[in-house]
Amino acid sequence: MSLNLTRNFGSPVVSRLEVDYTIEQSNVQFEQEATLNGFRFDFGWKLPLNILDKQKKLALKR
Asked: Are 31 and 18 in contact (CB under 8 A)?
């Protein structure tokens, strides 16, 4: 079993949202940028190859 934690900061901007609308005679402008900054969790389960080989042999005997 393995658990990896990786952090990713300093990513370039991948998308940008710009909104300009009017509500009751008042202009509202909104701009937001999205990046891939954050944390990544990887969970892995590794099986030894001999276990898979045993299961293959059992399946072929049937």
From this structure: yes
Q: In terms of pTM, does the model score above 0.85?
A: no
Chain centroid to Cα 50, Å, comes to 32
CA 31 to CA 53: how far, in whole Å? 56
| Unique residue bearing structure tokens 């609308």 | 21
* Domain span at 51: 2-61
Count of domains for the chain: 1
User: Confidence band (pLDDT; 50, 70, 90) for 20?
Assistant: very high
Amino acid identity of residue 62, one-letter, is R
User: How many residues comprise the chain?
Assistant: 62
